[in-house]
Known about the structure:
By secondary structure, this protein is mainly β. 14% of the residues lie in helices and 52% in strands. The protein has one helix and ten strands. The strands form three sheets. Strands 5-2-8-9 form a four-stranded antiparallel beta sheet, with no helix packed on it. A four-stranded antiparallel beta sheet has the order 4-3-7-10, with no helix packed on it. Strands 1-6 form a two-stranded antiparallel ribbon. The longest helix is centred in the first third of the chain and has 16 residues, at 2-17.
Amino acid sequence: xxxxxxxxxxxxxxxxxxxxxDPDADKVQIKYTVTGSCSQVDVTLENExxxxxxxxxxxxxxxxxxxxxxxxDKFLYISAQNQGQTGSVTVKIYxxxxxxxxxxxSGAYVIATASGTS
Length: 118
């Protein structure tokens, strides 16, 4: 009986060391960016709570990073509208530092939109 208990403790320690019990093992970090040659944009995005957030007259470049990691398979969305007569706007979605979606538009009051899943 004592051998079984010791074996179970060793298995638990090994599993914890391998990340099997890591609550963040299936979570990802998300970041949105807006860049381009325009100077001001209006931004709409899907936030970390699954709601919609809007930001008016933001200077470019602009970044929004989720404060905590989120579970995979969550809907992600960002759009940015150029608020000027000229210029380009690019939006990107990053998952764990890698670009997973990107879009660029050029011209007066154009909108760049990107969406995907975490």
